[in-house]
Task: structure prediction
Amino acid sequence: MNEFVSVHIGDERPGVGTIVLARPPNNTLTRQACREIAAVATEVGQREDIAAVILFGGHEIFSAGDDLDELRVLSAAEADVAARLRQEAVNAVAAIPRPTVAAITGYALGSGLGLALAADWRVSGDNAKFGCAEILAGLIPGAGASVRLPRLVGVSRAKELAFSGRFVDAREALAIGLLDEMVAPDAVYDAAADWAGRFAAMPAAALGAAKAAIDAGDLDVERRLYVEAFARADRRFVAGAAGR
Result:
């Protein structure tokens, strides 16, 4: 049984599953938390009753990043293991073959930001803060931000954020493309659920294929996935769809 990560499916929004990170007070990421995130993300991706996914750290804080108390006592070999576990956790979230939304409250810093970047969309309260804080500890982003952040905000801005470690407020995050929607702090989860609910009724396999093709950025992959989608029984030819 997991200690820090769980999955919930709400009756009010059928098909929408929520991965909840609960490691008070700041949802920092330990090796155990990363193992649980990877396991839960893999499970969610295999469940047919979940069509869209919300990633949520609760109403106070999304994640403040790596657990510094754990990092301080790691040897170089143990740090390598921790880095691999962190990467596996974030990549497992990114690989969920469903639309995913990060519902961000409070802070998304360091590896917490990397975790949020692994989702397809990001919604936050207007009081949220974001940052590549690793440089302040003499480290570099280790949860995928060095790859995913430039795709959203551009290489130059990503370098500025990674080199400075400065915190970005929600308004700036929205302006530079790091954030997709900003709402009142107490409306974050509902806004994320609205995003997820838009896609819950769509063909799940086709959604997963479209996501994989976009993430791959490869035309050969796109063609292969298109042909696979064409051959599936759940494909739909809707009258007038091509003219929309």
Q: What stands out?
A: The chain has a mean pLDDT of 92. The longest strand covers residues 16-21. The chain has two domains: 5-197, 204-236.
